[in-house]
From TrEMBL, chain A:
SUPFAM superfamilies: Multiheme cytochromes. It is found in: Periplasm. Heme c 1 binds at H71, C85, C88, H89. The keyword Kinase does not apply. One of its GO terms (cellular component) is periplasmic space. The lineage of its organism: Bacteria, Pseudomonadati, Pseudomonadota, Gammaproteobacteria, Alteromonadales. Residues 1-21 form the signal peptide. This is Periplasmic nitrate reductase, electron transfer subunit. The keyword Glycoprotein does not apply.
Automatic annotation (TrEMBL), chain B:
Binds 4 heme groups per subunit. It comes from the Bacteria. It comes from Colwellia chukchiensis. Keywords: Cell membrane, Electron transport, Heme, Iron, Membrane, Metal-binding, Transmembrane, Transmembrane helix, Transport. Heme 3 binds at C138, C141, H142. This is Cytochrome c-type protein. InterPro entries: Cytochrome_c-type_ET, Multihaem_cyt_sf, NapC/NirT/NrfH, NapC/NirT_cyt_c_N, NapC/NirT_cytc_sf, NO3Rdtase_cyt_c_NapC/NirT. It is a single-pass membrane protein.
Length: 152, 191
């Protein structure tokens, strides 16, 4: 009996030891499209891309795409107190500022009711409309824009 | 009459009078200098944000804006926008500001919440002031005559060559909230 206990103890110690010996830490280092990085090093940050300052509207790729923002929006606040985007894009001021009017879908609630002002679900513009920078896509794709939108 | 005065001034008896005049003059110089120096001290950013009401609210917000940090490193500090450069206008603004010191002493605005509650009325005062002086403080640095439209964005050019060039609108009409967060803008023209 004593011998058996001893044997078990020896065997399990050996197993534990061999298992811990094998347990090397995986340092990462997987090659991705953003380059190779191991866990123990911090990769230098990518250079910041510059937002397009001001440009004519950028063609859309498909029907119902939220158009991308062709101008910079640094410092434009959209909160409970004020909505900078609407100070140009609302129907009231669009003619004067030359901005595109928000479309009527922006007045509709989720269950299809049309409100007299911007619907809460369309209030936070940058949730759907984003600025652009000149950044080459990381992944190729074969998407073809819809022809009827005149975007080639 | 004048002649009598002159002979009196030339006589040794008038020494005391001369002395008093000299003291008065020197005192005047010192007082004037001191006064203006004091005025200068209260005209610095450090002074403006030496009370927490300013430091924790408007200063914190302003640090994220173009007038705090930009590509050229030229800054606009609090007095650049809030205190006129001309001496007489400056004094008038400083006297008006004494009311704000009173507000500080009596603890009118102690917390962020109270600050935000008062923001609309404070902002309206600044808008009104800037509207009346045709945004003089902005124009001290930004001279319309020297704006190069070929360097500005499309939207800037459109707005600046219409409403600004014709004098119909002034900077503050379109650039509200340039340095701080805005109050509730309900009912404010163009918002």
């Amino acid at each position: 009996m004593k011998l058996l206990t001893l044997a078990i103890a020896v065997v399990s110690t050996v197993i534990v030891l061999s298992v811990t010996a094998q347990e090397t830490v995986n340092p990462g280092g997987l090659a991705t499209i953003r380059g190779v990085a191991t866990i123990d090093e911090t990769r230098p940050a990518e250079k910041l891309k510059r937002v397009i300052k001001d440009k004519n509207p950028i063609a859309r790729n498909y029907v119902h795409q939220p158009p991308v923002v062709p101008h910079q929006i640094r410092g434009y606040r959209v909160d409970l107190n004020s909505n900078k985007c609407l100070s140009c894009h609302s129907w009231k001021y669009a003619a004067e500022t030359g901005a595109t009017k928000i479309s009527l879908t922006h007045f509709e609630t989720r269950d299809g009711k049309t409100l007299s002002d911007v619907s809460p679900r369309r209030y936070f513009c940058s949730q759907c409309h984003v600025t652009q920078a000149d950044a080459a896509p990381l992944v190729d794709n074969t998407f073809e824009p819809v022809e009827s939108l005149g975007n080639e | 009459m004048l002649k009598n005065l002159w002979t009196f001034l030339k006589s040794p008896n008038s020494a005391a009078l001369w002395f008093i005049l000299a003291i008065g003059f020197a005192g005047g110089v010192i007082f004037w200098g001191g006064f203006n120096t004091a005025l200068e001290v209260t005209n610095t950013e450090e002074f403006c944000i030496s009370c927490h009401e300013m430091e924790n609210n408007v200063y914190e917000e302003y640090r994220e804006t173009i007038h705090y940090a930009n590509r050229s490193g030229v800054r606009a500090t609090c007095p650049d926008c809030h205190v006129p450069k001309k001496w007489t206008d400056k004094i008038v603004r400083k006297i008006a500001a004494s009311k704000e010191v009173w507000g500080k002493l009596t603890g009118l605005i102690d917390t962020r919440e109270e600050f935000v509650n008062h923001r609309r009325s404070m902002a309206e005062r600044e808008w009104k002031r800037m509207k009346e002086n045709d945004s003089l403080e902005c124009r001290n640095c930004h001279n319309f005559e020297y704006m190069d439209f070929s360097e500005q964005g499309n939207r800037s050019v459109k707005m600046h060559s219409d409403a600004l060039a014709s004098g119909e609108k002034t900077c503050i009409d379109c650039h509200k909230g340039i340095a701080h967060e805005l109050p509730d803008m309900k009912g404010v023209e163009h918002w």
